[in-house]
Amino acid sequence: MAIEYVRVKRQIMVGAEPGIKYLARLFREQDIDIDGLAKEVSESSTVSYPDVLACLKAFEIVVSRHILNGQAVKLPYLGHFIPKIEAQAMNTLSQVTPETVKRVTCRFYPSVAFTRSLKTVPVVEKNLEITGLQQ
Question: How far apart are CA 59 and CA 89, in angstroms?
Answer without folding.
Answer: 36
